[in-house]
Amino acid sequence: MVGKIDKQVYLRKRGEHINMLRGLPHENAEELREQAIELLNRQEGPRTRKQGARQAGLEPLISLTEWTALGPTPIPNGQTSGRSDPVSGRTISIAIHPTNPDIVYVGTAQGGLYRSLNGGLNWTQLMDIDNATTPGTGTALAVGALAIDPSNPTTVFVGTGEAGFSADSFIGRGVFRIRNAETTPVVEGPFGLGQFANRAIGELLVVDTDPTVAGSE
To answer: Are 124 and 112 within 8 A, CB to CB?
Structure first.
């Protein structure tokens, strides 16, 4: 028919166009879809069987793994904007000392960087808005990536900005370096402000043979 296209041809062409937009090779598109459907069936199978057993008043024939919450627990009235709801906040990066697991650093979504010297029992804030060494710059409270210098674990590199792309993910102010992080921290930076200002760093890697080189993603 004039102006019409066969349905199968249309579906194939549409799939090819979507694959092109997503960067998928045409020859693997159908295989990827089949794999996704197979994975979905495997995931849905146990749940479906358990629901059917419950409806029939029977115990399921398979043992399903039960999950136990370990934390964190919400802070009562922790939500400070809009409503007073219980929240637990977002910890978006973590780094553990390579030889002392009691020394832990965590970066938060909007609260800066924290350090624990006793396995998480107590925490000390290492970065806030006023402790940048460059006047007028300030440090970012969104800490998206952390990396401990493998050759000198008392030095910690901090990538700012949250790369989660949520509605309240904040931009960063480049990369910071903290010397003597375990005792009397000295915050240096921001570095690469021209490249990383108003951006988010999702990962940091430190070259073990040259700790002055840090790569970001």
So the answer is: no
Measured CA to CA, the distance from residue 4 to residue 10 in angstroms comes to: 10
Give Cα 80 to chain centroid, integer Å.
23
DSSP β-bridge partners for residue 215: 205
The DSSP symbol for 165 reads: -
Produce one character per residue of 145-157: b if its CB has 16 or more CB atoms within 10 Å, e if not: bbbbbeeebebbb
Sequence-distant (6+) residues with CB within 8 A of 214 are 147, 157, 175, 204, 205, 206, 207
pLDDT digits (tens, 9 = 90+) for 42-92: 877 766 666 666 666 555 555 566 888 887 788 787 777 777 788 877 889
Q: Is 159 exposed, middle or buried (0-12, 13-18, 19+ CB in 10 A)?
A: buried
